[in-house]
Design goal:
Blueprint lengths: L2 H21 L3 E3 L2 E3 L2 E4 L2 E13 L2 E10 L6 H6 L4 E7 L3 E2 H15 L2 H6 L1 H12 L3 E2 L4 E7 L3 E6 L2 E7 L2 H12 L8 H5 L4
Antiparallel strand pairs: 1-2, 3-4, 4-5, 5-6, 6-9, 7-8, 9-10, 10-11
């Protein structure tokens, strides 16, 4: 073997050896690591995309969207039949009142009055979730999981909070906070849709 062949063999070996670590590497968003996969209701989900929610100049939270398979359009995301998860990690302290108001404003901006009327009881329950926790602290992890035939369940730092909300229309209304025509953050929407 000449030097060139040896060099090519070594480079190929190094790339091959490194490939698994790239394939399973977590995505880092502002110091928050989102695993490439997670499990909801016994089903493995893939990270569709992740990004940062900013308000004015402040980084508020990092969010990741997990689906059964990657989707790049809003209608496709909303039509996914299996479980789904929005994973949020707080990057600063926010009162639950402010956080709850932002969620309500996001739903109002991205749904019609008729749609909201149909899911009003669940919106009210969702508001109660935030009333249970006075402050979301930096580092707190909030998960919003959709499980077919069950509903939406919220978790704060791995602990269930609030009641199960059964209607998929409610979960899709929540997703539209970030993915709707008037998203909470115009740079977070493409990030959650997996655009580079």
């Amino acid at each position: 073997m000449n030097r060139r062949t040896i060099l090519h063999t070594l480079i190929a070996s190094a790339i091959f050896a490194a490939a698994p670590s790239f394939a399973f590497a977590a995505v880092d968003v502002a110091g928050v690591k989102f695993d490439d996969t997670t499990t909801v209701a016994g089903q493995q989900l893939k990270l569709n995309g992740a990004g940062i929610r900013t308000k004015v100049i402040f980084k508020v939270y990092a969010a990741g969207l997990y689906l059964t398979e990657k989707k790049s359009t809003v209608p496709d995301v909303l039509a996914v039949a299996g479980p789904r998860r929005v994973a949020i990690t707080m990057l600063r302290e926010v009162s639950s009142e402010d956080f709850g108001k932002a969620f309500t404003d996001g739903i109002n901006a991205n749904t019609s009055k008729e749609e909201r009327n149909k899911i009003l009881p669940q919106i009210m329950k969702f508001g109660e979730v935030f009333a249970q926790t006075p402050t979301l602290k930096k580092g707190d992890q909030l998960s919003l999981d959709w499980t077919p035939n069950e509903g939406t369940q919220c978790y704060l730092n791995g602990k269930k909070i609030g009641e199960l909300m059964p209607d998929v229309a409610f979960y899709n209304a929540v997703l539209r906070i970030w993915l709707g025509d008037h998203p909470a953050d115009s740079s977070l929407k493409p990030a959650l849709l997996g655009e580079k």
